[in-house]
Design brief:
Layout: E1 6-7, E2 10-11, H1 43-57, E3 70-78, E4 81-88, E5 93-100, H2 104-118, E6 128-134, E7 137-143, E8 147-149, H3 150-153, H4 159-178, E9 181-182, E10 191-194, E11 199-201, E12 208-209, H5 232-236, H6 243-259, H7 266-275, H8 287-295, H9 308-322, H10 332-336, H11 342-352, H12 356-390, H13 395-420, H14 429-435, H15 446-450, H16 457-476, H17 479-496, H18 499-513, H19 522-535, H20 539-556, H21 561-565, H22 568-577, H23 582-598, H24 602-616, H25 621-637, H26 641-659, H27 664-676, H28 681-695, H29 702-718, H30 722-735, H31 740-749, H32 753-765, H33 775-795, H34 798-818, H35 822-842, H36 846-863, H37 867-877
Antiparallel strand pairs: 1-2, 3-4, 4-5, 5-7, 6-7, 8-10, 9-12, 10-11
Helix pairs in contact: 4-6, 4-8, 6-7, 9-13, 9-16, 11-12, 12-13, 12-14, 13-16, 14-16, 16-17, 16-18, 17-18, 18-19, 18-20, 19-20, 20-22, 20-23, 23-24, 23-25, 24-25, 25-26, 26-27, 27-28, 28-29, 29-30, 30-31, 31-32, 31-33, 32-33, 33-34, 33-35, 34-35, 35-36, 36-37
């Protein structure tokens, strides 16, 4: 799909070798670009554009569009179809629209391409937004990338520039391999260097599932790809593994140096030769290994780091080697024990299991994640040790690698302290703390070596240790303690005068402040973090700091929000330019969604939340768990209940996998799903019952436990299960002494309507309306007003009941109009039922009573409510 490129306003359709092994070339002919369709264009212009569209699509069009798309111009054509630049009003942005030829086999290929891309979420892979069938043509909607193919971009480039962009392309292939895909057709024409400097690998039309290398060849694979770059095993029809992409990548890189008329150094030439070895087994073990070898620079001499515990780690490797002890590279577990020994871990986890039912369920989860962290860390330690031994890693690169590994030891020590001192009240902190440990794989990330050279590691080590400890505490939710460590780190970083570390410390300090009561104190800290990060060229940190400040402004409803949002025109392009800034981008989009939601701009909020969700799919650990909430946020912005249910279900699965089935955050998302998206009352009952029970495992979740049981009590009453409903409300009262709504319903359902009415009235008076209050703030008062009406009806005060129920119904109709979640709809349905019965008893306002009864009956039928109550309301509605 090199046709996706638009260079300086000209359509790009460079000639290239064929897909699927044929000798056809991509057409380079390009019709004249069309003007964009705009509202109010003259009829003559629309008709002229329609004639051009007719020529392109083989039919006349009178609307200047293809489906919902406004087609602007053709970008190029290939063996599987044609690509156009188009405007998508649903996404409100320009896109690349690929139309596939009519043949059924091509439809299948296009759908296969869409599915392959849908499994990938990586900055260096062109994203697919939509796929569908229109006018008997399969279409794919993709990012519109403006730039040049790798082949075109090469002219006049240096060796370092070429290696850098090819590393990005290789990262895309590695991401495909991670999800079990082989691209099969990587070549310079299938990768684009965008105007933003980011490489996107495109055209996954020939991508396939990776084979088992031992697969028999009785049914050989069909030959597919471009002959010049095709691995020998593809030509032979034997097993296709990720090693095939290594071959194509290496051939393309060798060609790049030839086109640029450059001679690669011996180490890079050796990488290329190994990558394009005839036998897959002779190539690198993985694409990531190839990229690591490409990034290494053994020219620098080995030197030890003389900085605290970093020295210990590096000396350990050198010492074992020099004195001929047991292979040092296999002693990583012993090194990791310096942070928290295996024996101490086992003892602490055994103790956790004694801390109640939740502790018992938590122990295996913590053990699993701690063992996985240890295994990954030991593997990275071994790799670093072997690279040092072979001489392929030395100097500053190895210094940084070992300092990175030391942070893993420090993080384990911080987690160990939390687990060892855990009490029942803070057990829920532990999974988050474990997930907050840094991923050991990041220690071999080439980006680690590309960072600006700063102060000696001996000076940085104490600050890094404090930051690691603060990050674990933030993950655990111990914000006051995290604030103390982060503040100390900020002071130390200021004395060093090293911008990137100061920015990191300020961001952590701001994150901690954002969670304490006076969260406004975080605003100047995060503003400084943004400024320091930008001046230090730590762009990813700058994006995160700006996004987190925006998040605070939204929660405190600061007037400064408008001025801050004006900066999004600078921050958003900056975030999109940084290929590795997936996490900051996700935070940015999530908080922009929250800002849009605070203004009731649901369409814009939905767009941003969806972008946050897409970015978060490639995250792991604490980053992924933090962004899992983006799906819950998306639910608030969505008017599509089925879609919202899917989003919340996915978030619950992710949180359960990372934090456990009974963790409060997992339970919260499940509660939201049961309360806000499921309509059938029986299903709500069966869904919420285990959630409310699991909440009782957490003493610190008293308010949420009470809320869960209160909602379940209302649902059970609507089902006609009055005694069971009373039991649910009583459990809400046990959970929290502040469960005012539940306490009033218990009084009412135990038969004392007068006392219940007084309880509801007092609670309503304690929560008077405020100017410009949000709909969320109105819901609790409206619930209490509904309860007041129900109590007054039971005590015989029909006029007072009518007044309260009318007010509740009116408020709920306004809320449901803009926020149609099922909980508010259940409240509205109940208000209509109660009002219809009350008006009937009064014998007045007949038209209003009939309207309320009809609406109430429709709701009861839809949610499968109490049959006896349905019959009663239907009778009130009349024939």
């Amino acid at each position: 799909m090199s046709e996706l490129i638009d260079n300086a306003g000209e359509a790009a359709g460079p000639a290239g070798e064929s897909m699927a092994g044929s000798a056809d070339e991509v057409s380079g002919s390009t019709p004249e670009p069309m003007a964009k369709v705009r509202p109010g264009e003259a009829a003559g212009e629309l008709l002229a554009q329609a004639r051009v569209l007719g020529a392109l699509f083989g039919e006349q069009s009178t609307v200047g569009s293809f489906g919902r798309f406004q087609v602007l111009k053709r970008l190029g054509a290939g063996g599987m179809g044609v690509v156009y630049e188009a405007y998508d009003p649903d996404l409100a942005r320009g896109v690349a629209l690929k139309l596939v030829n009519v043949a059924a086999r091509d439809r299948e290929a296009a759908l296969a391409e869409a599915k392959a891309l849908a499994r990938l979420s990586h900055p260096n892979v062109v994203p697919i937004y939509d796929v569908g069938l229109e006018r008997d043509r399969v279409y794919l909607v993709m990012e519109l990338v403006r730039g040049k193919t790798l082949r075109e971009w090469l002219v006049g480039r240096t060796l370092g520039e070429i290696v850098t962009v090819y590393q990005q392309a290789g990262a895309a292939l590695a991401a495909a391999h991670d999800v079990g895909l082989v691209h099969r057709d990587f070549k310079p024409d299938n990768a684009i260097v965008g105007d933003d400097g980011r490489v996107r690998v495109v055209d996954f039309g020939l991508a396939c599932e990776a084979d088992d290398p031992a697969r028999t060849t009785t049914e050989p694979r069909g030959v597919a790809g471009t002959p010049r770059f095709m691995a020998p095993e593809i030509k032979a029809g034997t097993a296709i593994t990720p090693a095939a992409d290594q071959y194509s990548f290496s051939v393309a890189l060798a060609d790049a140096f030839e086109i640029a008329k450059l001679s690669p150094p011996r180490r890079i030439a050796a990488v290329i030769e190994r990558g394009r070895a005839a036998e897959p087994a002779d190539r690198f073990a993985s694409m990531r290994d190839l990229l690591r070898a490409l990034a290494r620079d053994p020219a620098r001499t080995w030197r030890l780091v003389v900085a605290g515990s970093v020295v210990a780690s590096v000396l350990a490797i050198a010492g074992y080697l020099q004195h001929g002890r047991i292979d040092a590279c296999e002693r990583g577990a012993d090194q990791l024990d310096g942070g928290w020994s295996r024996a101490a871990r086992s003892s602490a986890l055994d103790r956790v299991a004694t801390l109640g039912r939740y502790g018992q369920s938590l122990r295996p989860l913590l053990e699993r994640d701690l063992d996985a962290h240890a295994s990954h860390w030991v593997g990275e330690y071994r790799a670093a040790c072997l690279d040092r031994r072979r001489g392929t890693e030395a100097g500053t690169r190895l210094d940084r690698r070992m300092a990175c590994l030391q942070r893993g030891i420090d993080a384990l020590a911080a987690v160990g302290a939390l687990i060892s001192d855990a009490e029942p009240a803070n057990l829920a902190e532990l999974p988050r703390a474990v997930q907050s440990m840094p991923n050991p794989a990041s220690c071999s990330d080439p980006d680690l070596f590309a960072a600006e050279v700063g102060p000696p590691l001996r000076d940085l080590a104490p600050v890094q240790r404090q930051l690691t400890h603060a990050r674990i505490l933030v993950g655990a939710g111990r914000y006051e303690q995290a604030l103390a460590d982060a503040s100390t780190a900020v002071a130390a970083a200021r004395s060093l005068g090293y911008g990137p570390v100061l920015a990191e410390a300020l961001v952590l300090q701001g994150r901690a402040l954002a969670e304490v009561p006076d969260r406004k104190a975080a605003l100047p800290i995060l503003a400084e973090a943004t400024k320091v990060a930008l001046s230090s060229r730590a762009d990813a940190l700058a994006v995160e700091a700006w996004a987190r400040r925006l998040g605070v402004l939204v929660t405190v409803r600061e007037r400064d929000l408008d001025r801050v949002l004006a900066g999004v025109d600078v921050v958003e392009p900056l975030a999109e330019r940084i290929a590795t800034a997936t996490y900051p981008r996700a935070i940015l989009y999530n908080n922009l969604g929250n800002a849009a939601l605070s203004r009731d701009d649901k369409d814009k909020a939905r767009e941003y939340f969806d972008r946050a969700r897409i970015e978060s799919q490639s995250l792991t650990g604490e980053d992924a768990l933090e962004l899992a909430k983006a799906r819950a946020n998306a639910e608030l912005a969505s008017g599509d209940r089925a879609r919202a249910d899917d989003l919340l279900a996915g978030a619950a699965i992710d949180l359960a996998a990372g934090l456990g089935e009974d963790h409060p955050e997992t339970l919260l998302v499940r509660w939201m799903r049961g309360s806000l998206t499921i309509e059938d009352l029986r299903q709500v009952d069966s869904f919420l019952s285990p959630v409310c029970g699991a909440y009782e495992l957490h003493a610190a979740q008293a308010a949420q436990t009470a809320q869960c049981w209160t909602e379940l009590g209302l649902v059970r009453w609507d089902l006609g299960e009055h005694q069971i409903a009373l039991g649910a409300m009583q459990r809400a009262m046990v959970a929290s002494s502040k469960a005012v709504e539940a306490a009033a319903y218990v009084t009412l359902w135990e038969g004392n309507a007068g006392a219940a009415a007084q309880q509801f009235a007092t609670a309503v008076a304690a929560a008077p309306p405020k100017p410009n209050e949000s709909w969320l703030a109105r819901v609790p008062r409206t619930r209490l007003t509904l309860g007041l009406g129900r109590a007054r009806r039971q005590m015989g005060d029909l006029r007072g009941a009518s007044e309260a129920l009318d007010r509740a119904r009116s408020d709920l109709e306004l809320i449901v109009h803009d926020h149609p979640d099922t909980m508010c709809q259940r409240l509205l349905g109940r208000a209509r039922v109660e009002l219809a019965i009350t008006l009937s008893a009064m014998g007045t306002r007949v038209p209003e009573r009939i309207a309320a009864a009809k609406a109430a009956a429709a709701w009861l039928r839809r949610v499968r409510g109490n049959p006896d109550e349905l019959n009663r309301v239907e009778a009130l509605a009349g024939p």
